[in-house]
Amino acid sequence: MSIEGQSFPRRFDARLSHPNWPLTAVVTVGMDAERGPVLTGVRALVNPDTSKPIHTVREATRLISDTIDEALLLRELASDAVGEVVKWALYNDGPAAIQMSEEEMQERITEMNSAAELARRDAYPVSQPRRRRLITTAYLQEVARVYRDAMSEGLAPTKAVEKHFQTSYSNAAKYVARARQAGQLGEAKGTQPGEQS
User: Fold this and answer.
1) Claim: this prediction has a pTM higher than 0.70
2) Which of 57, 163, 179, 186 is placed for a possible disulfide with 195 were both Cys, Cβ 3.0 to 4.6 Å?
C-alpha cells in the first residue's frame, strides 16, 4: 500500500526477542492509511528453559510495552520491512546467483544493502503514527468542495477525495457518505457519482 507516496507492505510479521524476556514474540504489523503502522497481533513463543513462562497475548503485549516504546518500535519495524522488500526485489530481478562469481556476488550484496538502507531511511519519516482524523463540519465541507470540483472537471470525485486527503479509497467513500448525511452534499444519484439537486 502507498502512504504519502511511499510503498509499504500491507501486513507483515516480525520476530522480537530481548535479553530480559522469557519469550520470543511474533508481532503482526498492519499498515493503516490513516494511522500508519499498527500492532494487529502478538504471539508468544515460550522459551522452555525459563522459570517464568509467559503464555498469554496480554502478558506478551504488556511485556513489550513495558520494555520498548511501541510507537518507535512500529516505525522501526515498518521501515525495516520496506528495506527488506526492496532487497528481495533487487535480488529476484538480478541474474541468477549461481552464475555469479564470488566477487560479483559481494558487489551485488553491497548494492542490495545500500538500496535497502536508502529505502528504509525514506520510509521512516512517513511511518510516523498519525492520530485519527477528527471529522468536523469544516472537514466535511472540504470533502464536498473537493468532490464537486472533481465532478465539474469530469474527474472521478471519490478518487479525487482519496488523493486530496491522502487516504484509502474506502475511507474517501466514507467521507463522501458522511458529507451527504451532514447535508454538505446532496443525495446520490443511485449508483452514479454526483448529487441530486
Assistant:
1) no
2) 186
